[in-house]
Amino acid sequence: MKKIVFILLLAPFFGIGQTKNVVNANRYFPKADKVLEFEKALTAHAQKYHKGDWKWRVYDIQSGPDAGGYHVTEGPTSWDAFDGRGNLGTEHNNDWNKTVAIYLTDKGSSNYSVYVDSLSTVQLTDFSDKIVINHMYAKPGMIGETVDLVKRLKKAWAAGNESVAVYQAINSGGPQIVTVTRLKNGLKEMADGYRKPLPERFTAANGAGSWDTYLADYAKAVESRWSELLFYRADLSSR
Among the three residues 114, 142, 169, which one is the final residue of a domain in this structure? Predict the structure, then answer.
């Protein structure tokens, strides 16, 4: 019974196969003395091989444990499209291995995530040039409680006119909810006084005492959390 309830709980995140709500994100870390060569090669590769559903948005990672790396998102598209894509072909793979990968370190990562419309306050493709990514890892058996935390947060985001896209990581490490705050008005959105503090907005939206309850529930449900700041690089991305 518990397994059935868990599957039903996650059903909204997976959606149907044809829904274009799946994003693949890869992180690359060039050698310190080969950054310019890497950027040139990455740009040429993106322009030649990554168009349409496979277009790339490239970001500089400005802070956090991956600072100095490049975050490349592909999509959104559907699971069916990923399933039928294959290995991209010999020409593509040779171009990547011989012109781009030669400048990379051994560090890197890849993950798949599904956009969750019901938890978000901004549409999937309504992007911004500066973003804050928060990675929230649920404790074992606590993914449902973690989702509930985000449901409560959404009310506070809406009250503060924050543009937040929420994703569920799929088969990409530990159970993770990813929130991406899209800073439509730039870094000034992070300044004190730009909007009311989160605890104040949260309490107004969820009722007296709700913030303290949220913090207590957070401690029970969430294993760890970290955040980072990223800047969009239009010059490196697909056109």
Answer: 114
